[in-house]
């Protein structure tokens, strides 16, 4: 099992690497999901997610689509978007993914890896927010 520390990783780059590993058949666990970074201006990111949050079913708004607020669910959703979820191999790969806020007791003390391709030092800008900050803006309590 590959355990990745999400701290100071860029969300899209991390998601693309993780989705490839999942499709190869590897089990992946991401810890510290609230510390993953989303690049861009704070106001633009908040506006984009607020607009996404307002989309509802016209006939019956209680039927969805359902939008996630917690950091682990937001990260899981981004990775799901990079998998062929309509095919059997994509669904099986998605089941091999685990995302956690913080470090759970069963993974505490195990070797945690970093993904150099997804590191924030390669970003070239200081305009970013953390997934946990976005999550609080959307109303999550974690």
Q: Spell out the helices and strands N to C.
A: EHEEHHHEEH
Low-confidence stretches: none
Number of helices: 5
Strand order of the largest sheet: 1-2-4
State the separation between the terminal residues, measured CA to CA.
Answer: 26 Å
- Principal-axes geometry comes out as globular
Q: What name is given to the CATH topology?
A: Ribosomal Protein L13p, Chain: A
Overall strand count: 5
Task: Profile the largest sheet.
Answer: 3 strands, parallel
CATH class: Alpha Beta
Mean pLDDT: 92
Can you tell me the CATH architecture?
A: Alpha-Beta Complex
- Helicity, as a percent range: 25-40%
Q: Give the DSSP E fraction (strand runs of 2 or more residues).
A: 5-15%
Counted up, domains total 1
Q: What is the CA-atom radius of gyration, in angstroms?
A: 15 Å
CATH superfamily membership: Ribosomal protein L13
Structural category is alpha/beta
Spell out the key features of this protein:
single chain, 142 residues, 3-stranded parallel β-sheet, 5 helices
Can you describe what's shown?
The chain has one domain (2-138): Ribosomal protein L13 (Ribosomal Protein L13p, Chain: A), CATH 3.90.1180.10. It has five helices and five strands, in the order E-H-E-E-H-H-H-E-E-H. It has 142 residues and is α/β, with parallel strands linked by helices. The two termini are 26 Å apart. It is 37% helix and 12% strand. 24% of the residues are buried. It has helices at residues 11-23, 42-53, 71-81, 88-95, 131-138; strands at residues 2-5, 28-31, 37-39, 97-99, 128-130. The strands form two sheets. A three-stranded parallel sheet has the order 1-2-4. Helix 1 (11-23) packs across helix 3. The radius of gyration is 15 Å and the shape is globular.
């Amino acid at each position: 099992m590959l355990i990745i520390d999400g701290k100071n990783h860029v969300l899209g780059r991390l998601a693309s690497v993780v989705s490839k590993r999942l499709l190869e058949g590897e089990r992946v666990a991401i810890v510290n999901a609230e510390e993953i970074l989303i690049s861009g201006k704070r106001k633009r990111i908040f506006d984009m997610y607020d607009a996404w949050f307002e989309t509802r079913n016209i006939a019956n708004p209680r039927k969805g689509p359902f939008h996630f607020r917690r950091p682990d669910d937001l990260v899981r959703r981004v990775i799901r978007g990079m998998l062929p979820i309509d095919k059997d191999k994509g669904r099986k790969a998605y089941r091999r993914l685990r995302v956690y806020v913080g470090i759970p007791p069963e993974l505490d003390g195990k070797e945690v890896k970093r993904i150099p391709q997804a590191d924030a030092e390669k970003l070239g800008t200081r305009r970013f927010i953390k997934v946990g900050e976005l999550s609080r803006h959307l109303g999550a309590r974690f």
